[in-house]
Amino acid sequence: MFTHRDDYKSCFLDLQRKQIDESRYYQVDDQSLYPSVTSVISFINRAKFADWRARVGNEAANAKTKHATTRGTSLHLVLEHYIQNNDYKALPDWEKPLIQFMFNAAKWHLDTRVDNIFCQETTMFSNRLCLAVQLTSSLRLMGSWQSLTSDLRETQA
Fold first, then answer.
1. Which of 66, 144, 133, 78 has the alpha carbon at shortest distance from 105?
2. Is residue 90 part of a domain?
3. C-beta of residue 83 within 8 angstroms of C-beta of residue 2
């Protein structure tokens, strides 16, 4: 069982998300709109993905992308339920052998290293970097702070 704490909940704002020209932005205040970290990384890697798409063809690229994003979404959901102390094995996604394999590979690390969870699925931003991000979790690993920002639904391709 994971310990969920609300100590720092007031430090995280619920930022409004906007989709503009296939990029995600977050409304930080009345005047500031920051791109998401994922959108910036996607922009930086745009040429690499275009080259890959040209090499394998659109049909194969679409199939591979769909497979990866579906797998990532399934694993994300199972892990999210597990961290929330919910019955993750009751989820339809749990029936997929690959999801069970990937989950079990991560479970030991969660069980032996996580001692507190401070937030899940919340947003953060940096005025210095002019970026925003949706955190999957902010947690404490054996006494040190960690933020899990990689969103498997978006980074697998």
1. 78
2. yes
3. yes
Q: Report yes or no on 77 lying in a domain.
A: yes
Distance CA 81, CA 9 (A): 19
Strand order in 23-27's β-sheet?
Answer: 16-20, 23-27, 33-35
Phi, psi of 151 (to 5 degrees): -105, 105
**Residue 98 belongs to a domain:** yes
pTM: 0.75
Total number of domains constituting the chain: 1
Tokens (6 digits) for 155 = 């980074």
Q: Domain range holding 64?
A: 9-155
| 2 is a domain residue | no
Share of the chain residues as helix, strand and coil, in percent rounded to the nearest 5? 50, 30, 25
In the chain (157 residues long), the average pLDDT of successive 10-residue segments reads 82 86 90 89 88 95 94 93 95 96 92 82 86 75 51 37
